[in-house]
Design brief:
The protein has 240 residues and is mainly β. It is built from 3 helices and 14 strands. A hairpin with a 2-residue loop joins strand 2 and strand 3.
Length: 240
């Protein structure tokens, strides 16, 4: 999922009081050492090239698209779905209750062009920002087109450090009907968390993150496809 979307939401949300509405477009491209989504590798712990484009106006509306390469299964695996690209489309509204509290509602469409099965699905997200704290709730009624729902609740905290470094804390919990039958996803409900250090230098954004989950036992994947154990991820991105 597009990590730069949160900044777009905040920008749109804080601008809703402007009398004159206008639209703006931004774009981003990034290279990451491992594409992790809610603590689980989507690229078999290999590098991923990602990019997106966002449209937003100061009335609070926004829309965008984001894409990344993915690798879910080893070549020749019986469950291989043939997916090599993830494409996310999204649209929503962001607003501000006052100078301290902002909110956003976003609808996502996750697609995997060229895959061998239909696993595209929709998800809705509700977020609230209070200063450096962000809380968000996500709901997909038909996750991966499997007929079962998933939910995700996350808490984030960001702080500024000396020399214009940033420090971000994240914890999230995945749960819902799709996790009740562990044979469906090969997972039980779980918690993921991360700590990341950020810095902008030479017009590039750098992020070094430590990520882990509480998955263990038969659900633990140490490396390669679907890795869900502790790791460091380095991401370099550029916004336009």
């Amino acid at each position: 999922m597009n990590k730069t979307l949160t900044s777009v939401l905040l920008g749109a949300g804080l601008a809703v009081s402007s009398v004159q509405a206008f639209a703006d477009i931004s774009a981003n491209v990034s290279l990451t050492s491992d594409y992790r989504f809610r603590g689980i590798s989507q690229s078999a712990e290999d590098f991923a090239i990602q990019g997106g484009i966002d449209w937003f106006n100061d009335a609070g509306f926004f829309a965008g698209a984001w894409a990344s390469n993915v690798d879910f299964y080893p070549t020749g695996d019986a469950d291989d779905d043939g997916a090599s690209v993830e494409l996310d489309l999204y649209a929503g509204y962001a607003g501000a209750i006052n100078d301290d509290v902002a909110y956003d509602v976003t609808v996502y469409r996750y697609m995997y062009p060229g895959d061998d099965i239909n696993q595209d699905y929709n998800e809705i997200a509700l977020g609230v920002d209070y200063g450096p704290v962000r809380v968000a709730y996500w709901y997909a009624d038909d996750y991966l087109n499997l007929g079962e729902s998933t939910q995700y609740l996350e808490l984030n905290y960001s702080m500024e450090l000396p020399q214009e470094f940033g420090l971000n804390f994240h914890v999230g919990h995945s749960f819902g009907d799709a996790f009740d039958d562990t044979s469906l996803l090969g997972l039980e409900d779980y918690t993921d968390y991360s700590i990341s250090l950020t810095k902008t230098w030479a017009e590039l954004d750098f992020e070094l993150a430590y990520l882990d989950t509480d998955l263990d036992g038969s659900f633990e994947v140490e490396s390669d496809h679907g890795a869900n154990q502790d790791t460091f991820v380095l991401t370099v991105s550029k916004s336009f």
